[in-house]
Design brief:
The chain is an all-alpha fold. The protein has 13 helices and no strands.
Length: 299
């Protein structure tokens, strides 16, 4: 039992770091798409991350690369979904909607992943797990509606928000498939990133993808390449080795909290309602990530 809780806490830490790095990607990405195209950001993001990830996998995990590459069909599918598809949709969405709106839509992903895991994988969750998901989503709605929950029925959906809905569907599929991948986490991530670089190269050439031309663009791309690309995908895949997809997906609710904190740090005030909603989201994540996960694994 003690080992189960240790694994749960470690996985929770990995998932918190991944969502923190991705939250920064919303804010930095929104600024970057003002002068760079979604393809610019996606192609250079993975091109810069590919070699460091391959080196990290080789020296840390020392995988059997031939065995890894024998799984190239599923790795190529994951690359198309999680690296190319999701990222292109995300940066396209940030050209039309705010980073905060994008993170709020992402918070709907846990419920989607739970449904997909139940129907596709036959997985279960505990009552605490369901309570955590419900509490987290209620916190998101509280933040979204500024404490007036009836406003949820009057929200309009623009092009950016529709693109984000497509993005979370793609990410849910990525999470479900990656959960069953029996390949070392870093090696799997490195191969997917390399495949994304190779498959996107012809489109990059045809669309005349350019390098950053200003210091601001350069620093934005550097952040995107190191933290959301190297760090977040690595921690996410490590966590999926011991965490059900529905549990991992619930941590995406933290993006709302982290994005709000980053926004406040940049000068936007935070309301009492947002603080209350954020506390509910964190509580929901803790219930699902530790209590719910531990009971599920003990069953």
């Amino acid at each position: 039992m003690a080992l189960v809780y240790i694994q749960a806490v470690k996985a929770s830490f990995y998932l918190v770091l991944a969502t923190l790095f991705w939250s920064g990607n919303f804010v930095v990405g929104q600024a970057a798409v003002a002068s760079m195209t979604p393809l610019d950001l996606t192609f250079w993001r993975w091109t810069l991350a590919a070699l460091p990830l391959l080196a990290l996998a080789h020296f840390v995990e020392k995988p059997d690369w031939r065995a890894v590459l024998r799984r190239w069909p599923v790795l190529l599918l994951l690359s198309a979904l999680g690296m190319s598809g999701y990222t292109l949709l995300l940066y396209s969405a940030l050209g039309y909607t705010s980073a905060m709106n994008a993170s709020l839509i992402t918070a709907a992903n846990p419920a989607l992943i739970v449904v997909m895991a139940i129907f596709l994988l036959g997985e279960r969750t505990t009552r605490l797990g369901w309570l955590g998901i419900g509490l987290g989503l209620l916190g998101v709605l509280l933040v979204l509606t500024r404490g007036e929950l009836q406003r949820v029925f009057s929200l309009s959906i623009n092009t950016g928000e529709l693109l984000m809905i497509g993005a979370i569907v793609v990410w849910g599929s990525y999470t479900i498939i990656a959960r069953r991948l029996d390949i070392p986490a870093i090696a799997a991530t490195a191969v997917q990133v390399t495949m994304a670089t190779v498959t996107l190269a012809p489109f990059a050439l045809a669309m005349h993808v350019r390098l950053p031309e200003t210091p601001a663009e350069g620093w934005s791309l550097a952040y995107i390449a190191v933290f959301p690309s190297l760090g977040a995908y690595l921690f996410w895949n490590l966590a999926l080795k011991t965490t059900p997809p529905g549990t991992a997906g619930n941590y995406l609710n933290l993006m709302v909290v982290f994005t709000a904190v980053i926004t406040v740090a940049l000068g936007t005030p935070l309301t009492l309602v947002q603080v209350a909603g954020g506390i509910m989201v964190v509580a929901g994540v803790l219930l699902t990530g530790i209590k719910g996960q531990a009971k599920l694994r003990a069953a």
